[in-house]
Design a protein that fits this description.
CATH class of chain A: Alpha Beta
CATH architecture of chain A: Alpha-Beta Barrel
Structural class of chain B: alpha+beta
Largest sheet of chain A: 7 strands, mixed
Helix content of chain A: 10-25%
Number of helices of chain A: 4
Strand content of chain B: 35-45%
Largest sheet of chain B: 5 strands, antiparallel
Number of strands of chain B: 11
Distance between the termini of chain B: 19 Å
Distance between the termini of chain A: 39 Å
Helix content of chain B: 25-40%
Order of helices and strands of chain A: EEEHEHEHHEEEE
Number of domains of chain A: 1
Largest interface: A-B, 26 and 21 residues
Order of helices and strands of chain B: EHEHEEEHEEEEHEE
Shape of chain B: elongated
Strand order of the largest sheet of chain A: 3-1-2-4-5-6-7
Structural class of chain A: alpha/beta
Radius of gyration of chain A: 15 Å
CATH topology of chain A: TIM Barrel
Oligomer: heterodimer
Shape of chain A: globular
Number of strands of chain A: 9
Strand order of the largest sheet of chain B: 1-9-8-7-6
Chain lengths: 174, 209
């Protein structure tokens, strides 16, 4: 099963601890002012087999968990449910989505996906807010992830993976 | 289960501003208004064509000797200005009262939206009011209440007795009308409610201050 991906890196600013971070490619929401606009278009050329993604995650003994961002992860609910099933049970999983709770509960696959992870930060990105987490809801699904990590703050990180540099985190309080 | 939110009061909705004018029986119109630094600048230079230091699109009304302006200072952000046409001894008290009356009328418009929403859902409701507080009591046996209190430019809303995310749906409109996104100040994630999805109970947290 293939999953369009924009980027993969290891990071300490996208959830608690050292994490495998996956940005999916493609987002139906296309929020104005979003700071990842390059992830909005649907481009299947960048797809990766979820078995390979899972294998990379499971082979890394240093990570505490997986964070899935985008793009819009919930637009790939079926693929991500399968991916979550394949990863080691000790790893925590976090999803950043632009969908609201109201929208999520209307879709059986989106519900299935959020039930399979530990924490979901849900709600539209609103450029008017001083911080991207404002106006969102934090869904604590399992209680395994500490919500205090998600307090608004500014943190930037550069990570290098296969000669590619990724700048990630919240760059500035607007 | 209850939900309590505090936020800074803002005039955000043009439609609600117009309805507030109507509640006070004041005719209103939309005009381009200018801000002048002094009476001289307004009375003398204004007549010579000077447009003032700043111009605003404003919803304007007249009550007695006072002009009321709700000037658009940003997207979904209006500021109330009251101007007197003739100087009087009790101007400050009267202007303060007028400002409070207008704010109250505006908050009542937001309350009306809540009542409309409850009516749509065939939920009986009644509104009780005191000086700085409105209480919407609703439910088939009037078992729930939504309290909106306002003081010193702060609004507190509290929903009592409502289970699930209905309380946040109920207060969405009121927050949209009475607050502005950038006026929120954040310190922690607080439990807002528990949501049952199929067989799983999920804790929903929101940033609060």
């Amino acid at each position: 099963m293939l999953l369009p991906t924009n980027n993969i890196c290891y990071s300490t600013v996208n959830g608690p601890g050292y994490r495998f971070v996956l940005w999916v490619q493609g987002c139906k929401l296309n929020c104005s002012g979003c700071f990842n606009p390059e992830t909005h278009s649907y481009n299947s050329e960048t797809s990766k087999d979820i078995k390979n993604i899972a294998s990379e995650i499971n082979s890394n003994s240093l990570i505490e968990g997986v964070t899935i961002s985008g793009g819009e992860p919930l637009d790939y609910a079926i693929e991500l449910i399968e991916l979550i099933k394949m990863i080691k049970p000790g790893l925590t999983s976090v999803i950043f989505t632009g969908y609201t709770i109201k929208e999520i509960v209307k879709d059986v696959n989106k519900v299935k996906l959020i039930k399979s992870v530990d924490m979901v930060l849900a709600g539209r990105y609103n450029k008017k807010f001083e911080h991207p987490y404002l106006g969102k809801k934090l869904l604590n699904i399992t209680g395994r992830v500490d919500s205090s990590y998600f307090l608004p703050k500014t943190s930037i990180e550069y990570s290098i993976n296969l000669n590619k540099v990724t700048k990630t985190g919240i760059f500035k309080i607007q | 289960m209850s939900h309590c939110t505090k936020f800074d009061f803002k005039y955000t909705s043009e439609e609600a501003i117009v309805k507030a004018f109507r509640k006070l029986d004041i005719k209103c119109s939309t005009e381009l208004v200018s801000e002048f630094k002094s009476e001289f600048s307004k009375q003398v230079l204004g007549k010579l064509g000077f447009l003032g230091n700043k111009q605003y699109r404003a919803i304007c009304g007249i009550i007695g000797k006072y002009n009321i302006f709700l000037c658009k200072i940003g997207e979904n952000d209006y500021e109330l200005f009251i101007e007197r046409s003739v100087v009087g001894l009790n101007d400050n008290e009267e202007m303060k009262k007028l400002s409070d009356d207008f704010q109250r009328a505006y908050i009542e418009v937001a309350i009306d939206e809540i009542v409309k929403k409850l009516d749509k859902g065939n939920m009986p409701s009644k509104v009780e009011s005191s000086k700085n507080k409105y209480t919407v009591i609703f439910g088939s046996s009037y078992e729930y209440s939504l309290i909106i209190s306002f003081e010193e430019g702060k609004i507190t809303e509290e929903v009592i007795g409502v289970k699930g995310d209905f309380c946040t749906k109920l207060t969405e409109d009121i927050e949209n009308i009475l607050s502005h996104p950038t006026s929120e100040l954040v310190t922690e994630w607080k439990q807002e409610y528990n949501m049952q999805i199929e067989d799983q109970k999920i804790q929903v947290l929101s940033l609060s201050f």
